[in-house]
Structures are given as structure tokens and as C-alpha cells.
């Protein structure tokens, strides 16, 4: 058991958040010891249809209830759960929360000890604007058309921000500051991820965007490797081991050398010398 497990043992989380950010955050809170009850609509979470295996991983250990919150009976069931809850996670549009009387002002008046993390696509005043991971990334320059991203960056950073917001709210409540509400904007998360690009660090041919030989991708005899000898001591170790000058060596020079072995061979070679080289994994 890791040191973080069990720290939320007495905390009860109720989540009506579907898809990725909310369920991923809830799974993390469960791993910290919280008891998690997830409320799904009668048709279930769309993620279960998109990726059954990932859905099962995220839902493992949680109490899953199918409740129709569009009915008075369903809302009454949720209300009963909220009475003993410590934290509510939602990813419903703000206007829909208001219709369900689950907006923060109304919710707090009924459950003064309940904290609430509200996941939205965009920050106010655009909480009801439609969007998904792909559009958040498109708006912040994180896409290279026509290639689709290999992961859900905005969703996954949104999950981490939801987790940290939840912990901050619970900590503040335990310090006597009362239950509070936090809004996690997924588009704002994408903007945070785009900061290195905005400042030119990871732009094409930027220092960490291909402009530095010691921090780059290289083709090998079989597969590709990632070289991240950013600190001078790593670079000195690499150039010494390869018998090349530490000043003036270009990416083309390294590319010619790396074609002499396979990616796995270079990774094994580098591990013995404490040089950060890793074979690029190709998931199918």
C-alpha cells in the first residue's frame, strides 16, 4: 500500500460525472481511501461503450447506481445520498445543474457540509459552451492536423485538477473554513498544457521542439528512441561514450550514429551508463 492510500478513508464521494475527467478523478480519490458512489443515467456512461476495459478500470471498487435524475424519484434518491456525502463531482452543464437544483448556491443551502467540484468545458461566462478534448486542444495550438492526438490531454489534466481541487476543498473544510465550491475548466487545463508552446519552448525547432540535438527523437535500425540528455552531465556522458565532441555535434551527426543499432539496444546501452534514452513505444 502506498503512503497516500487511506488518507481519505472517512470521506464519501458522490459523482454524477460521466466520460473521462470525473471518473478518472473519482478513481484517484478512491485509491486514496475515499468511498465513491457513482450515479449513472439509465443508459450508463458513454465511456463504457467507447472503451469497456478502461471504464471497468476506472469504476473498479466504486458503487455504481443507475438513477434517472430527470425524474423526481431519481432526484430524491440522489438527495438521500448527498445527505451523508462529503464531496459531489459533476460534469453537467451549468444550466442543467440549475434545472436540477444542483447549482452551488441551491446545493449549499441544503447540504452545508458538502463540497462540490464542478467540471465544465469553459470558464465563466461560457460554462454552457459545447466542447470536448479535441476542440480544447485545437483552440490552444496543441494539434498538428491531420494527425489526431494519441491521448486525451485536456481530459486527463482536468482529472488531475479535479482531484487537487477536491483535496483543497476537503482540507479547507477540515480547517474550519466551511464547505466550498470549485470550478474546473477543461479548456483552461488545455491552456496550461499549451504554455510551453506559447513561450516557444516546444515550438517547431524550439529548444525542446527539435532545435537541441541532446533533446530529440531519432530513428534507429529498428524503431525510434527519445534522447533527453538535457543536463550537461548527461550530455557529457553521452558524447564521451560515443566518442564525439560535446560542442558542435548536430542532430544529423547523432542520427547517423543511432542508425547503427536498434531502439531496444540503445535503451539497454544507455541504461548501463545512466543516460536518459528510451525506446519509443508504438501502441496499436
Short synopsis of the structure:
The chain has 13 helices and 9 strands. By secondary structure, the chain is α/β, with parallel strands linked by helices. A hairpin with a 4-residue loop joins strand 7 (215-219) and strand 8 (224-228).
Describe the structure.
The chain is an alpha/beta fold. It folds into two domains: 12-196, Rossmann fold (3-Layer(aba) Sandwich), CATH 3.40.50; 215-279, no CATH class. Helices cover 43% and strands 15% of the residues. It has helices spanning 21-31, 46-50, 52-59, 72-83, 94-99, 104-110, 133-139, 153-177, 186-193, 195-198, 232-242, 251-258, 263-273; strands spanning 12-15, 35-40, 63-66, 87-90, 115-120, 181-185, 215-219, 224-228, 277-279. The strands form two sheets. A six-stranded parallel beta sheet has the order 3-2-1-4-5-6, with helices on both faces. Helix 1 (21-31) links the parallel strand 1 and strand 2. The two termini are 32 Å apart.
List the SSEs and their pairings.
Layout: E1 12-15, H1 21-31, E2 35-40, H2 46-50, H3 52-59, E3 63-66, H4 72-83, E4 87-90, H5 94-99, H6 104-110, E5 115-120, H7 133-139, H8 153-177, E6 181-185, H9 186-193, H10 195-198, E7 215-219, E8 224-228, H11 232-242, H12 251-258, H13 263-273, E9 277-279
Parallel strand pairs: 1-2, 1-4, 2-3, 4-5, 5-6
Antiparallel strand pairs: 7-8, 8-9
Helix pairs in contact: 1-3, 1-8, 7-9, 8-9
Amino acid at each position: 500500500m502506498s503512503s497516500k492510500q487511506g488518507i481519505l478513508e472517512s470521506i464519501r464521494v458522490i459523482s454524477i460525472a460521466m466520460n473521462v475527467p470525473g471518473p478518472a478523478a473519482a478513481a484517484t480519490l478512491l485509491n486514496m481511501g475515499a468511498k465513491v458512489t457513482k450515479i449513472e443515467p439509465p443508459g450508463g456512461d458513454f465511456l463504457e461503450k467507447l472503451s469497456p476495459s478502461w471504464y471497468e478500470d476506472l469504476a473498479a471498487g466504486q458503487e455504481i447506481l443507475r438513477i434517472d435524475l430527470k425524474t423526481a424519484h431519481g432526484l430524491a434518491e440522489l438527495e438521500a445520498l448527498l445527505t451523508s456525502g462529503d464531496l459531489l463531482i459533476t460534469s453537467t452543464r451549468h444550466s442543467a445543474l440549475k434545472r436540477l437544483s444542483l447549482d452551488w448556491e441551491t446545493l449549499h443551502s441544503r447540504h452545508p457540509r458538502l463540497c462540490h467540484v464542478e467540471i465544465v468545458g469553459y470558464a465563466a461566462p461560457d460554462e454552457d459552451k459545447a466542447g470536448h478534448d479535441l476542440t480544447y486542444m485545437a483552440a490552444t495550438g496543441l494539434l498538428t492536423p491531420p494527425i489526431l492526438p494519441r491521448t486525451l490531454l485536456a481530459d486527463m489534466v482536468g482529472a488531475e485538477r479535479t482531484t487537487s481541487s477536491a483535496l483543497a476543498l476537503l482540507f479547507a473544510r477540515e480547517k474550519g473554513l466551511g464547505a466550498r465550491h470549485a470550478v474546473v475548466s477543461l479548456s483552461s487545463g488545455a491552456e496550461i498544457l499549451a504554455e510551453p508552446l506559447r513561450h516557444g519552448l516546444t515550438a517547431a525547432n524550439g529548444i525542446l521542439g527539435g532545435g537541441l540535438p541532446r533533446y530529440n527523437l531519432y530513428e534507429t535500425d529498428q524503431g525510434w528512441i527519445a534522447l533527453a540528455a538535457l543536463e550537461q552531465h548527461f550530455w557529457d556522458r553521452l558524447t564521451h561514450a560515443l566518442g564525439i565532441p560535446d560542442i558542435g555535434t548536430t542532430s544529423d551527426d547523432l542520427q547517423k550514429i543511432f542508425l547503427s543499432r536498434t531502439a531496444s539496444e540503445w535503451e539497454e546501452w544507455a541504461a548501463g551508463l545512466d543516460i536518459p534514452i528510451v525506446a519509443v513505444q508504438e501502441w496499436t
